């Protein structure tokens, strides 16, 4: 484990950029906060301070919503091609600031710089361009004469002002998924980033001010309990889009429901990974290892819950150990680093608590203990022997931790996979296409991968079943979440 931290110039760049935050970003400019309270932002790799942002009051959130409400009608009145051009211009500015975005996201969120540069930034830019283009071809039921003497016309309209509350594990990507889908369809947005990861969102807002009308995209900082709650409850908010835990998502959903508002919730996951005895085990373990440690396992679709045929389970554990042992854990600014720190001391403590609570039959066969030194690092960890009803199996871990459980019959694997409250994603590894088809049909998950894991595209939808969420993100369906359908009936007489 290489945790030697270097005083990279990039880290100094983030420290300087953090000084830009002088309040909330409302109406295309910085508005000083009057709360007198701030939130300290820490570097997950060092535990040291990067900067601070205001802890906004309900009144400051209300000011942002009022600004967005005033700007929304004129933005909605623009043609789809006009909105598309503005959003493509913002995507161009984002690409011109590729390196700054990469560094801010890596240092602030604790992501390896190579993963951000080589993967996430390209996916983010692609999502920007997808939404900017897709808004020009939104579907609606066919207009026609469904009653004699009466013509019916179907019209897609924006909802109004959208509250977007983004998570700390994908600050920029999630901001783009929500903001672009909402703006592309004619809504305005007030976004509250996660308390620990504001800086890439700050840059996005500053660039947006160069190409979007003032007030269309606003950012307020603060706690979920105060700023997030005030945002979800504000009467001029038409819908709330939230990504985070089930527990917080439930609170957001209740707050929205109290005002009879729509909520789009992408919540937790606990992905089962079923590996049959006829799978290409080496290829499967390559995909599983990568899919389990990406973003230090802080991924709601992480390949964390392995259900492996009993005849190959020992080989699978040894092969996974070998792969995980090859990953470099360390400074996110070192291009050789594959696994960075946990996002916060609190998140690492949650993972530690789950491991400390293991039952008597569970065994840690790799990792399991936080290293000494700076930052919030945690090593790749494998746990065997856990029972189906143990917390480590039933609940989302959100760290670089794998549980491995054996099965014998296909039906047993399906039952084990479906026996949690989550339904976000799953994967199946087998060389038998018939089996793959049967199993994916029986799995209660919004996304099922066959012989791969954690593969995405902006064109494809993400939906959670069970307690993993309500609604859809990405793809055309994700755009439609931010619209309403109006039926206009015209008498022909």
Number of helices: 16
- In total, how many beta strands? 24
Look at the structure and give the mean pLDDT.
96
Helix content: 40-55%
Query: How far apart lie the N and C ends?
Result: 79 Å
Q: What class do helices, strands and sheet pairing give? A: alpha/beta
Cα shape: globular
Q: Largest sheet, if any?
A: 7 strands, mixed
Enumerate the strands of the largest sheet in spatial order, edge to edge or round the barrel: 14-15-16-13-12-18-19
- Strand content range: 15-25%
Question: What low-confidence regions span 5 or more consecutive residues with pLDDT below 50?
Answer: none
- Gyration radius over CA: 23 Å
Secondary-structure blueprint:
Elements: H1 9-18, E1 24-26, E2 29-31, E3 38-42, E4 49-54, H2 58-77, H3 80-96, H4 98-109, H5 113-134, E5 144-147, E6 150-158, E7 161-165, H6 171-184, E8 188-192, H7 199-211, E9 217-219, H8 224-233, E10 237-243, H9 246-258, E11 262-266, E12 272-275, H10 281-293, E13 305-309, H11 313-325, H12 345-356, E14 363-366, E15 381-384, H13 391-394, E16 401-407, H14 410-418, E17 422-423, E18 425-429, H15 433-442, E19 447-450, E20 462-463, E21 465-466, E22 469-470, E23 472-473, H16 475-480, E24 483-491
Parallel strand pairs: 7-8, 7-10, 8-9, 10-11, 12-13, 12-18, 13-16, 15-16, 18-19
Antiparallel strand pairs: 1-2, 3-4, 5-6, 6-24, 11-22, 14-15, 17-21, 20-23
Helix pairs in contact: 1-4, 2-8, 3-5, 3-7, 4-5, 5-6, 8-9, 10-11
């Amino acid at each position: 484990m290489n945790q030697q931290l270097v005083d990279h110039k990039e880290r100094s760049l983030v420290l300087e950029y953090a000084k830009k935050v002088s309040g909330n970003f409302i109406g295309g400019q910085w508005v000083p906060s009057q709360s007198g309270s701030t939130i300290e932002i820490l570097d997950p790799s060092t535990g040291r301070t990067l900067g601070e942002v205001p802890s906004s009051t309900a009144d400051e959130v209300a000011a942002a919503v009022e600004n967005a409400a005033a700007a929304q009608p004129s933005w909605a009145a623009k043609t789809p091609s006009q909105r598309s051009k503005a959003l493509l211009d913002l995507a161009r500015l984002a690409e011109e600031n590729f390196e700054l975005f990469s560094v801010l996201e890596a240092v602030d969120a604790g992501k390896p710089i190579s993963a951000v540069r080589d993967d996430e930034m390209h996916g983010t830019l692609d999502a920007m361009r997808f939404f900017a283009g897709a808004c020009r071809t939104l579907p609606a039921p066919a207009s026609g004469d469904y009653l004699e003497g009466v013509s019916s016309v179907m019209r897609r309209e924006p909802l109004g002002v959208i509250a977007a509350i983004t998570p700390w594990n994908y600050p920029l990507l999630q901001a783009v998924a929500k903001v672009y889908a909402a703006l592309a369809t004619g809504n305005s947005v007030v976004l509250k980033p996660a308390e620990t990861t504001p800086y890439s969102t700050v840059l996005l807002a500053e660039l947006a001010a160069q190409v979007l009308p003032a007030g269309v995209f606003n950012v307020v900082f603060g706690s979920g309990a105060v700023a997030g709650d005030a945002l979800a409850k504000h009467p001029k908010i038409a819908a709330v889009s939230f990504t985070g835990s089930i527990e917080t998502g439930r609170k957001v959903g209740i707050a929205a429901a109290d005002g009879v508002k729509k909520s789009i919730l992408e919540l937790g996951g606990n992905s089962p990974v079923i590996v049959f005895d006829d799978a290409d085990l080496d290829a499967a373990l390559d995909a599983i290892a990568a899919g389990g440690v990406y973003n230090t396992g802080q991924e709601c679709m992480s390949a964390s819950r392995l259900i492996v045929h009993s005849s190959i389970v020992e080989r699978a554990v040894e092969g996974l150990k070998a792969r995980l042992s090859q990953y470099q854990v360390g400074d996110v600014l070192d291009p050789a680093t594959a696994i960075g720190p946990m996002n916060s001391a609190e998140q690492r403590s949650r993972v530690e608590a789950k491991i400390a609570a293991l039952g008597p039959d569970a065994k840690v066969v790799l990792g399991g203990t936080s290293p000494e030194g700076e930052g919030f690092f945690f090593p790749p960890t494998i746990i065997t022997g856990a029972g189906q009803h143990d917390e480590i199996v039933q609940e989302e871990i959100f760290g670089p931790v794998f549980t491995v459980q054996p099965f014998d019959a296909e039906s047993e694997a399906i039952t084990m996979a479906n026996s949690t409250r989550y339904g976000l994603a799953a994967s199946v590894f087998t060389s038998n296409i018939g089996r793959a088809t049967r199993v994916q049909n029986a799995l209660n998950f919004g996304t099922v991968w066959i012989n791969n894991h954690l593969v995405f595209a902006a064109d494809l939808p993400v939906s959670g079943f069970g307690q993993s969420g309500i609604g859809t993100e990405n793809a055309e369906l994700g755009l439609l979440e931010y619209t309403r359908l109006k039926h206009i009936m015209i008498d022909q007489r």
